[in-house]
From TrEMBL:
<protein>
    <recommendedName>
        <fullName>Leucine-rich repeat-containing N-terminal plant-type domain-containing protein</fullName>
    </recommendedName>
</protein>
<feature type="domain" description="Leucine-rich repeat-containing N-terminal plant-type">
    <location>
        <begin position="30"/>
        <end position="83"/>
    </location>
</feature>
<keyword id="KW-0732">Signal</keyword>
<feature type="signal peptide">
    <location>
        <begin position="1"/>
        <end position="21"/>
    </location>
</feature>
<keyword id="KW-0472">Membrane</keyword>
<dbReference type="InterPro" id="IPR013210">
    <property type="entry name" value="LRR_N_plant-typ"/>
</dbReference>
<keyword id="KW-0677">Repeat</keyword>
<dbReference type="GO" id="GO:0016020">
    <property type="term" value="C:membrane"/>
</dbReference>
<dbReference type="InterPro" id="IPR001611">
    <property type="entry name" value="Leu-rich_rpt"/>
</dbReference>
<dbReference type="Pfam" id="PF08263">
    <property type="entry name" value="LRRNT_2"/>
</dbReference>
<keyword id="KW-0433">Leucine-rich repeat</keyword>
<dbReference type="Pfam" id="PF00560">
    <property type="entry name" value="LRR_1"/>
</dbReference>
<dbReference type="GO" id="GO:0050832">
    <property type="term" value="P:defense response to fungus"/>
</dbReference>
<keyword id="KW-0812">Transmembrane</keyword>
<keyword id="KW-0325">Glycoprotein</keyword>
<dbReference type="InterPro" id="IPR046956">
    <property type="entry name" value="RLP23-like"/>
</dbReference>
<dbReference type="InterPro" id="IPR032675">
    <property type="entry name" value="LRR_dom_sf"/>
</dbReference>
Length: 351
């Protein structure tokens, strides 16, 4: 074959392969199917492993990995999603799947390096540490390892995942997980795209740094041993919808006195059992979207603060366990109020 013919032949081969590959649906790469099957075999199903699924999420767990087998394309397996163009596995959602077993850092899961969404929540990996290898999933936008009995320290490598929008690592075992010194600060600093952060009951034991994602819509850190003063900037996040910092008695919270940038978006504010200082400012009355407010056991004193009387959309209001005194009259204006808790104060109904 002379050169021209060879080039033509090569061109023909490449083109025909291209046409061939475009006309076929992409199949899951063999090595990724194998990695998934190996993962499946590491975790026998025990329905009890997802007990909290029904308790917390209200739906029954079911064993997604049970039907995975070699005879079908892994892109069609329950909980597995592939990229339509490349065929790579980009999403694995095994929430509430009854998986039980030790999660080692040699797990075949870490071969799925194109994952963008990974949800392993509500399983039972009792006695497993969160491997630092999770930090190698550099394309991840969603990571959920909640309520799966992981213990020990959340690896600092999680802060390499700079594309994360959603990070949920909640635990029901109080302080069974910890952030480790400075890690929380680095995490917030580095994950500049975060929209949702949930770390319930993780022992964070540090202050909330000044530098964090301006896209946060959900910041949920109850029962995390937070200390210091809550940065006012939290209240100025213009997309913030849900702020839950309850049960952090050493966290000092002071509301901004002027306008809040989050005032139009904020729907739920849970600040139960925090170290509240200062008054409820007039600016509070601009929280026009607020549906749920919990400021129980938060050291509120004096009469019921006037600005609370303007929150006409509030459906539940908890002010119990404070030092509030005087008459209860303003509440007649809450048209939507369904739940009101004022116990353990010195309030009285007007006579
Ligand atoms: C699940 O829990 C129930 C009640 O606690 C127990 O009787 C049963 O043996 C458990 N099943 C497995 C497979 O561990
Ligand atoms: C293999 O997987 C397919 C699709 O999930 C399922 O319909 C079939 O029952 C499975 N076969 C076995 C032997 O489990
Ligand atoms: C993975 O690591 C665990 C614990 O170190 C070990 O028991 C297991 O055999 C390893 N599995 C493989 C496939 O290497
Ligand atoms: C996984 O699926 C559940 C519903 O089955 C859904 O609520 C959850 O958001 C999914 N996780 C991710 C990371 O998309
Ligand atoms: C922050 O992310 C960058 C980019 O991924 C990484 O190089 C750096 O090491 C990360 N820093 C920390 C403290 O994790
Ligand atoms: C939380 O972590 C801090 C610092 O790492 C430690 O001193 C403290 O004892 C931990 N608290 C609990 C309840 O585990
Ligand atoms: C947060 O950190 C980034 C990157 O280090 C920096 O560009 C930005 O100015 C910091 N923002 C604040 C409010 O400190
Ligand atoms: C409030 O939002 C405006 C417009 O996005 C911005 O210019 C301003 O700096 C924000 N204020 C605070 C305190 O973050
Ligand atoms: C609560 O905040 C005040 C400052 O307003 C501070 O003096 C006090 O030590 C804090 N209490 C706790 C338990 O952190
Ligand atoms: C709050 O309500 C009072 C009277 O109930 C009213 O005078 C005041 O303008 C309201 N403030 C806002 C910001 O809506």
């Amino acid at each position: 074959m002379d050169c021209v013919k060879l080039v033509f032949f090569m061109l023909y081969t490449i083109l025909s392969q291209l046409v061939f590959s475009l006309s076929l649906p992409h199949l899951c790469p063999k090595d990724q199917a194998l990695a998934l099957l190996q993962f499946k075999n590491m975790f026998p199903i025990n329905p009890n492993a997802s007990d909290y699924c029904f308790k917390f999420k209200g739906f029954h767990s079911y064993p997604k990995t049970l039907t995975w087998n070699r005879s079908t394309d892994c892109c069609s397996w329950d909980g597995v999603h592939c990229d339509k163009m490349t065929g790579q596995v980009i999403e694995l959602n095994l929430t509430c799947s009854g998986l039980q077993g030790k999660f080692h850092s040699n797990s075949s899961l870490f071969q799925l390096c194109n994952l963008r969404r990974l949800d392993l929540s509500y399983n039972n990996f009792f006695g497993s540490l969160i491997s630092s290898k999770f930090g190698e999933f550099s394309s991840l936008t969603h990571l959920d390892l909640s309520v799966s009995s992981f213990s020990g320290q959340i690896p600092s490598e999680i802060s390499y995942l700079t594309n994360l929008n959603i990070l949920r690592i909640t635990t029901v075992d109080p302080y069974g997980l910890r952030a480790g010194p400075h890690n929380f600060e680095l995490l917030l600093k580095n994950l500049t795209q975060l929209r949702e952060l949930k770390l319930d009951s993780v022992n964070i034991s540090s202050t909330i740094p000044l530098n964090f994602s301006s896209y946060l819509t959900v910041l949920q850190l109850p029962y995390t041993q937070l200390r210091g003063v809550l940065p006012e900037r939290v209240f100025h996040l213009s997309n913030l919808e849900f702020l839950h910092l309850s049960s952090n008695p050493q966290l000092t919270v002071r509301f901004p006195t002027t306008t809040w940038n989050s005032s139009a978006s904020l729907m739920k504010l849970y600040l139960y059992d925090v170290n509240f200082t200062g008054r409820i400012p007039e600016s509070f009355s601009h929280l026009t979207s607020l549906h749920e407010l919990d400021m129980g056991y938060s050291n509120l004193a004096g009469p019921i603060p006037k600005p609370l009387g303007n929150l006409s959309h509030v459906e539940s209001l908890f002010l119990n366990g404070n030092y509030l005194e005087g008459p209860i009259s303003q509440f007649s204006i809450f048209e939507k109020l369904k739940m009101l808790s004022l116990g353990n104060n010195n309030l009285r109904w007007p006579t």
